[in-house]
Specification:
Elements: E1 2-5, H1 9-20, E2 25-29, E3 40-44, H2 50-57, E4 62-65, H3 74-92, E5 95-101, H4 123-140, E6 146-151, E7 153-155, H5 162-172, E8 177-180, E9 189-191, H6 192-204, E10 212-214, H7 223-234, E11 241-244, H8 246-253, H9 257-262, H10 278-284, H11 291-299, H12 302-305
Parallel strand pairs: 1-2, 1-4, 2-3, 4-5, 5-6, 6-10, 7-9, 8-11
Helix pairs in contact: 1-6, 2-3, 3-4, 5-7, 7-11
Length: 307
């Protein structure tokens, strides 16, 4: 049995993946939401309650942290959530697998490896870095085995990433779109299904513990190139995109607290951001899903896909 906290795109994908391979899954969210499956038990619980999490995770093979508070409340709400999940795994005596991203690294001049220095250049990056530092300290002290899976920007149906929220709907509607930063800078894209497969592989592999793993990128195209490929897949005209500047984000953020939080992350979008996942491919035997398959999934209207 596995316990997953969070039923967003990745948590739900990981739960389905495990269930489809015959595993029992407890999927924990505040409201008991998540995919319907005969081997998925949906449980309503407060993930900041370490005692409740320990109760739910006792006897589990691993506890997955796929949860996150609202983007504009990370500094206040992420630390207690992460602390409770770490404590819950420790008390339950189960392995702990964290879903994360590349915010902890800060700016880079080349492809990021898992050994790249933890040197965040944003508040949200500092939050992520501290979560990993706390978990790694618990691991090094022998209290719990931990590992972390780091993804870049997400792709896939139902994903709440900037590309999927700002660009994909416009492209599929044949309308102009906008995206922050340099539209022609190469960028690592992580398919949500590959993120889920990496999480599960990391939980099952003895080499996983005490280190992080990068999700293999399904593409390293620029935003403009990716939008063009999506348009071609959907049979739409070549997309027209505008680049959102720091000034644009600051103006839009006055009326939208989530958009305001994107401003400090602009460094990820105004320069090449690439990910090296060779260690994941070699040790965990995970490779990326083809971009064509991902774009075909994204090009299907929600009603037709059954979501």
């Amino acid at each position: 049995m596995y316990v997953i906290v969070g039923a967003g795109a990745t948590g739900s994908a990981a739960a389905r993946l495990l269930a489809d391979t015959g595993e029992r899954v407890r999927l924990v969210t505040r409201r008991g939401s998540g995919p319907v499956h005969g081997r998925i038990e949906r449980i309503a619980a407060d993930a900041t309650d370490a005692a409740r999490l320990a109760e739910l995770a006792t006897g589990a093979k691993a506890l997955f942290n796929c949860a996150a508070p609202p983007y504009d409340r990370w500094p206040a709400e992420f630390p207690p959530l992460a602390a409770a999940m770490l404590a819950g795994a420790e008390r339950a005596g189960t392995d702990y697998v964290m879903l994360s991203n590349i915010y902890c690294y800060g700016m880079s001049d080349g492809p990021l490896t898992e050994d790249y220095a933890i040197s965040p250049s944003s508040v949200k990056g500092q939050v992520r870095a501290q979560m990993w530092a706390d978990a790694l300290a618990a691991h090094d002290a022998g209290r719990v085995r931990v590992t972390e899976v780091r993804a870049s920007d997400f792709l896939g149906a139902g994903v709440a990433s900037l590309f999927c929220l700002l660009v994909a709907p416009a492209v599929l509607a044949g309308q102009p779109g906008a995206y922050p930063g340099d539209l022609d800078a190469p960028h690592a894209w992580s398919y949500v299904g590959d993120v889920a497969r990496t999480l599960v592989a990391a939980a099952r592999h003895e080499q996983s513990w005490g280190r992080a793993w990068h999700v293999p990128s399904t593409s390293q195209l620029s935003v403009r190139e990716l939008a063009g490929r999506l348009a071609a897949t959907a049979g739409e005209s070549k997309p027209v995109l505008a680049a959102l500047s720091a000034t644009d984000l600051e103006r839009l953020g006055r009326d939208d607290s989530v958009v305001a939080e994107v401003l400090e992350m602009l460094y990820l979008f105004d320069r090449p951001t690439l990910l090296d996942a060779s260690a994941t491919r070699a040790a965990l035997d995970i490779d990326a899903t083809s971009l064509d398959a991902v774009l075909k999934e994204m090009a299907v209207p929600p009603a037709a896909s059954g979501s």
